[in-house]
């Protein structure tokens, strides 16, 4: 407790360190450290020279628990920080909004206020009436780690009629309620990071805010996204849903209903743990076609085009299967809201048949009908042989020399055995066997030289 100080004490300690404004240490008085002895307005004015041009004042973690020492000859009507627009007071010991109002009165142009990690209780209605005029200019406020729920925010918000940016990270917000249509009518940015909001219906309560452009919801335990009402979040351009518990593609498809959405963060959700990054990336941008950036990666025209081709090729077999049942088809189209449009633009993909293991093995081999009509051994006049498709003609000849007991020099001739068409070609040693037109209507003939 002995280390606690006032806002004015902390301000001088940090920003006034020249000879003219040096701190004057006085004896302890009632357990408090007296920092400055106010001995007349002229001296005060001299001491304030270094403060007049401050725009951003950072007094975080300074043990502040009051605005100033009331027993000083301090005239708050004469003391001002005329250019200060941002004030950082996080990690201090401020407990009530009356003290915040006294500090704000010293900064007439203040627009941004950071009060995170203070033991700050919400104001009473009586206190709001008393101090609300001091906060009319406030545009941005950060109230992280205050143990507030939504009702606490609503009570505090009565002080800020012009607020545009609110950050409420790491509080105790579980439910959300908008009392009237004029509430937060100027709000453009809202961060609810690390609040235990698992129900997306609670998030939808914010959907009618007329100017909301940015909504941050990382680490909020959200499991599923569904919109039960149209035209919500009409201005929302930036949405952060990273580090949640989303585990179904229907939730991703629902985000396509956000007609202004351009930037989306979705990393570290269970849905994406089992697939490669490029697979997830392509499947997301193909379900939400208005996106311009995903997980901080810009979506260029070329990457979208390639991604949609990949998505269509991968998802098309599922579409064909779902087409057999109207209910299954409806579910597929709900999960893939842009599928028909992509299909119309790109056309049906060529899908390779899903082969069995045996078919995959057979795909790497070719069957040959081999004729050696001059062979004296009747059993060797014809062979049917399976060889790898990568075998060279040279290697085939080496194999046949042993199988057919050939001692003379020979060459191989590819020739049709179907009387309806004629095809004949000498096989070159350097070529692959599969380079020639070989099927059951074509034979390989041994021709001795």
From TrEMBL:
N-terminal signal peptide: none
Keywords: Leucine-rich repeat, Repeat
Protein name: Tubulin-specific chaperone E-like
Organism: Dermatophagoides pteronyssinus
Organism lineage: Eukaryota, Metazoa, Ecdysozoa, Arthropoda, Chelicerata
């Amino acid at each position: 407790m002995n280390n606690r100080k006032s806002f004015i004490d902390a301000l001088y300690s940090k920003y006034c360190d020249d000879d003219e404004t040096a701190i004057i240490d006085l004896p302890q008085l009632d357990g408090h450290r007296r920092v400055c002895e106010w001995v007349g307005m002229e001296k005060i004015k001299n001491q304030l020279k270094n403060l007049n041009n401050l725009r951003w004042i950072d007094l975080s973690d300074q043990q502040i628990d009051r605005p100033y020492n009331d027993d000083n000859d301090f005239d708050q009507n004469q003391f001002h920080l005329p250019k200060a627009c941002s004030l950082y007071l996080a990690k201090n010991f401020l407990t009530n909004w009356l003290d915040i109002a006294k500090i704000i009165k010293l900064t007439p142009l203040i627009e941004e206020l950071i009060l995170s990690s203070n033991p700050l209780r919400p104001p009473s209605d009586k206190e709001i009436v008393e101090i609300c005029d001091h906060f009319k200019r406030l545009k941005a406020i950060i109230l992280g780690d205050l143990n507030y729920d939504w009702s606490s925010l609503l009570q505090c918000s009565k002080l800020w009629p012009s607020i545009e940016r609110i950050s409420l990270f790491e509080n105790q917000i579980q439910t959300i309620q908008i009392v009237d249509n004029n509430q937060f009518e100027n709000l453009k940015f809202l961060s609810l990071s690390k609040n235990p909001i698992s129900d997306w219906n609670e998030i939808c309560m914010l959907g009618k805010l007329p100017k909301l452009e940015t909504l941050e919801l990382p680490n909020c335990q959200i499991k599923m996204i569904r919109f039960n009402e149209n035209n919500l979040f009409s201005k929302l351009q930036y949405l952060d849903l990273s580090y949640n518990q989303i585990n179904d593609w229907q939730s991703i498809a629902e985000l396509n209903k956000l007609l202004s959405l351009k930037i989306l963060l979705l990393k570290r959700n269970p849905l994406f743990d089992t697939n490669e990054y490029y697979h997830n990336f392509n499947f997301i941008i193909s379900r939400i076609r208005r996106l311009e950036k995903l997980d901080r990666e810009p979506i260029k025209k070329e990457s979208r085009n390639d991604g949609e081709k990949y998505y269509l090729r991968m998802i098309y077999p599922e579409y064909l299967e779902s087409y057999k049942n109207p209910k299954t088809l409806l579910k597929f189209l709900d999960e893939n809201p842009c599928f028909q449009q992509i299909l119309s633009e790109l056309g049906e993909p060529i899908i390779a048949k899903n082969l069995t293991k045996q078919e995959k093995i057979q795909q790497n081999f070719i069957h040959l009908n081999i004729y050696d009509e001059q062979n004296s051994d009747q059993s060797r006049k014809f062979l049917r042989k399976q060889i790898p498709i990568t075998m060279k003609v040279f290697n085939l000849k080496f194999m046949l020399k042993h199988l057919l007991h050939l001692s003379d020099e020979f060459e191989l001739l590819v020739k049709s055995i179907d009387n309806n068409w004629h095809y004949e070609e000498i096989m070159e040693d350097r070529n692959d066997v599969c380079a020639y037109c070989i099927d059951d209507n074509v034979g390989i003939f041994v021709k001795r030289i």
